[in-house]
Design a protein that fits this description.
This protein is α+β, with helices and mostly antiparallel strands and about 250 residues long. The chain is built from eleven helices and seven strands. A hairpin with a 2-residue loop joins β6 and β7. α8 packs antiparallel against α9 and α8 crosses α11.
Length: about 250
């Protein structure tokens, strides 16, 4: 006996999805989304926006794990939604999708990233060289200790997952956070940069690297497999040496 189209649709596997709506004082709304093979969390959000709730706001760009703009909180864990497959993150066929933690919510799943990048500026996260465009391009040998110390750290794309996963950011909003300190660590080890001491003073100040409790949540959650905790520990050692040398 054949199965009608209506019966087939009725038997289709569904996901029970809760999605945050509103700003800081919003609420979760429930949706039923068809289950698909190789379905990502971003696919789920896109389906809701295109078929169930056109007003749903969220952010994405590349869809292949290069830009990090689709980062959200999925079942309580910060992650890239474009690289998170539903089969890997669902709990009994249920999904809860919320904006990243520790950042102001603009609307629904969109957060304001300005506080995140403001802390990069506080950590002196901008390269400051001594040469001009007229000078030869500086070469940094890849096998030097300084360069090898930041091989992984330079891959950060500023997605904010580590920041949302950091317990200390939640407790102390003034804490610079793992991404800003990871950026400072890369520049402290850049032999071309001329602002090393100024940067160490910035990260040694209140809310800097000494505030890190080394919980390693940032390292565990980083989609790029970076270990900001290791870089922050390096900054602590660099600050200690500078202090002992009378520079701080």
């Amino acid at each position: 006996m054949g199965v009608t189209a209506g019966e087939s649709s009725a038997q289709e596997a569904m996901l029970d999805v809760r999605v945050w709506h509103g700003a800081e004082h919003g609420e979760f709304r429930h949706y039923q989304v068809p289950r698909r093979d190789s379905q990502t969390v971003l696919d789920v959000v896109t389906y809701i926006q295109r078929h169930l709730d056109p007003a749903l706001s969220y952010r994405f760009a590349c869809r292949v794990g290069m830009c990090g703009s689709c980062a959200m909180t999925v079942n309580g864990v910060a992650r890239w939604t474009c690289r998170s497959h539903v089969d890997q993150v669902t709990a009994d066929g249920r999904l809860e999708i919320a904006p990243l933690a520790h950042l102001p919510v603009v609307r629904d799943l969109v957060t304001d990233m300005r506080p995140f990048f403001d802390k990069w500026a506080r950590a002196k996260g901008r390269f400051q060289g001594a040469t001009t465009r007229s000078d030869p391009v500086a070469r940094v040998p890849p096998d030097t200790p300084e360069r090898r110390a930041v091989d992984a750290a330079i891959e950060c794309i500023g997605c904010g997952v580590c920041y949302a996963a950091c317990d200390v950011v939640g407790w102390r909003p003034e804490y610079l956070g793992p991404a800003a300190l990871n950026r400072a660590w890369t520049l402290v080890n850049d032999v071309r940069d001329v602002s090393r001491l100024e940067r160490l003073r910035a990260v040694a100040a209140e809310g800097g690297c000494l505030s890190c409790h080394s919980h390693t949540s940032c390292s565990e959650r980083c989609p790029k497999k970076i270990a900001p905790t290791a870089g922050i520990s390096g900054l602590k050692r660099a600050c200690a040496r500078a202090a002992l040398g009378g520079e701080l």
